[in-house]
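Instructor's aside before we start: the two examples that follow are unrelated to each other. I chose them only because their records fit on one page, so don't look for a connection. First example below.
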Amino acid sequence: MGLFANLLEQVAVFRVTRKKGACDDCRVCEQKSPCPTVPEILKDSVLRPDCFSCTVCVNSCKDENALEFGVKRVK
């Protein structure tokens, strides 16, 4: 079941994304969020641990919309 959930996470349409221009790499979101996915989001990793979409990282970000929960952008 865990493998299936991880595969779905990799192709999820809705996910937490980082806007590079708005983020100043202060890492407050990483410190406040209990989620292991946040460091991988900050590194723009393709493969990430499971994100439970709690949005703690998004809400703790001090930068204006540097992290957002929404539709994944195609690069």
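Example two begins here.
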Amino acid sequence: MSVYHSIIRYPSITEKNTALRTAQNKFVFEVAPTATKPQIKKAVEKLFSVTVMSVNTIVVKGKKKRQGRFAGYRPDWKKAIVTIQTGQTIAKFGEV
């Protein structure tokens, strides 16, 4: 497994993210919590052979969950919204 695969964990495929992809050419990934914007940009460019215009990151807080009388939290995770150059696309993204 390359270092780029440890930065980009997997794509996030939801209705909202699909709308972003089609309307604004933005792709959403779950990334390693320690990943920086330059690392994410380089990883996406190397893995998918596209030109990245910008990277926005968000730390999503874990939801509170209960199991019986025991309460806890799901882990926090980081997502990256990557804008690629107009006219380019990431093949097989979100296709089932």
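The chain has one domain: 3-84.
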